[in-house]
Amino acid sequence: MGVSAEKYQYSLDYLFGRLNYERMGSNNYSTNDFKLGRMQALLRLLGNPQSSVPTIHIAGTKGKGSTSAMTAEMLSASGYQTGLFTSPHVTKYEERILIDGQQIEPGQLVELVAEISQAVEQMDLEPGKMSPTFFELTTALAWMHFQQRQADFAVMEVGLGGRLDSTNICEPLVTVITNISYDHTALLGNTIEQITREKAGIIKPGIPVISGVTQPEAIAVLEKICDEKQAPLYLLNRDFFWEPAGEKRRETPLSDVSLTDQEIPLQKIQVKTPWSLIGDMPVNLLGTHQATNAALAVTVLDYFRHQGTPLETGQMRTGMARLKWPARIEVVQKNPTVIIDTAHNGASISALVKTLKECFNQPNQILVFAATRDKDVREMLGTLLPHFSTVVLTQYLSNPRRIPVNELFEITQSIQQETGNRSDVMVTESPADAWLRAKQISSAQSLICVTGSFFIAAEMRELLLGTTDGVLVTEPC
User: What is the value of pTM for the model shown?
Assistant: First the structure.
């Protein structure tokens, strides 16, 4: 569907011009800024498109995006037209709204923005903070697109928290809560119990909940809420399980294989659900935590199969084998090996470090790090520093929430003084400068890891893909 560049850019400007909490630190807003009534009013003016799309609703502190992508890919491979809504995007806005892996086209986006703007005009005139936000409009656009295309399923990833998230105006077939850890504490609470209650706000009466939560205090909260709402609860390591199938990993480290070899799944798992035993399930994404995410996604599909939805295990395996999910411990270049990851809290940084130790053995490992103001940067750097001989600090440019690099340097120095860490630390003003510095101090046998924020991952990925596109096309990783 053709559309002029001017109309397309106007539509993006219209969306990004709305109040956008993704560009604000959590210190600048509170739960009073999130009102489901505003989202309900918007969807009502649009004809409640969410009511006509069978939905899988997925929340969690980390892994919810990967679990969503796995679930959607398996459904698509099984012949079901499947919508996928995730956030934030890595490179371009349209990544947030997919059907069977295909981004919403610019022409479709322009048409939907024109339609939704009429509803917004009405709401802007209402008193009392009724003007929809960027994320609310984006969520509504996804449901409109899925309804227009008559999607068989929509997999909706929660943006923030759960209880007050704009995706929570849905009527799910099943609810998933991947895990619970500390993030967005200013908004969600500073205890595991408080955060769990916010995430569990997506639980609906009578609707099954499948969860990878493992902390006893979080499980207690889930059990109480599920009991109150008479929602069946299926827990990891109690009701469903996973274990490696066959060889857990290659004998050859990833640093010694070619990019084309990396198309072969790095791990296979066996999943025991309450209804089936499913073996030889490939997991293309690196890390033990991704095997847990895969087990959650497989259990969701096996629940549907138990309920009578035709699903074949072979097609599920096909979907998992073809999955690619950008910037999740993604190898984007070799010689030196370059990894880009969106880890941005303590739990995801720990998962990244564990995966690097399991899969990569380069003696010279270089960290490129930038972070966001409302994160626990001391915890993140405290976990990362012991594993890297050199640290290149920088700041992303696309979002005002960045921590200035000089402030990052002060935090790093403080951690080094407290712990005796002796990593070399360098300061750069931009991702481009950080990349040049990392390249200067690396060799073909080095590893360069970029992490700390979605925003640094997005900017560095765009920088590298623009300069190494030929390599990546001919030797996909």
Answer: 0.86
